[in-house]
Amino acid sequence: MKFLKNISLLFLLFIGLNASAQVYRFETTGVSMSVKSAKGVWSAYTPFKDAKIVITLDTNKDRIVVYSEVIQLYTILGYDDPKTNEQGSIDSFQCVNNDGEKCVLVIRTDKDSKQKQLYIKEDSRVLVYNMKYVK
């Protein structure tokens, strides 16, 4: 009887842990990019180009995945404290990309329009995705 009780507790604990998983799904509408020249000067952002792709933020697995033509996987090494100002909120993540290079990913949410943008800041380029949260 005690064995069944222990198995039941483990089962409930397992269900509770799965229920707390946080996976956020976004769909993008456009992408823009800025690149750093050989002299270290950043270009102006390109005009936004249509981009219909899915992005997931999985806090359980500490990763952000951009499901573009070439899948971009970012492992989250650290979560910065969220910031809020008159324009909206900013959530930053210290990450490493597929190639093992450190980068910073930032999700900005506009206070008024609720528009979300994902900034992927690497040494030589910055990608910006316009996106919306999908339940």
Automatic annotation (TrEMBL):
<feature type="signal peptide">
    <location>
        <begin position="1"/>
        <end position="21"/>
    </location>
</feature>
<keyword id="KW-0732">Signal</keyword>
<protein>
    <recommendedName>
        <fullName>Lipocalin-like domain-containing protein</fullName>
    </recommendedName>
</protein>
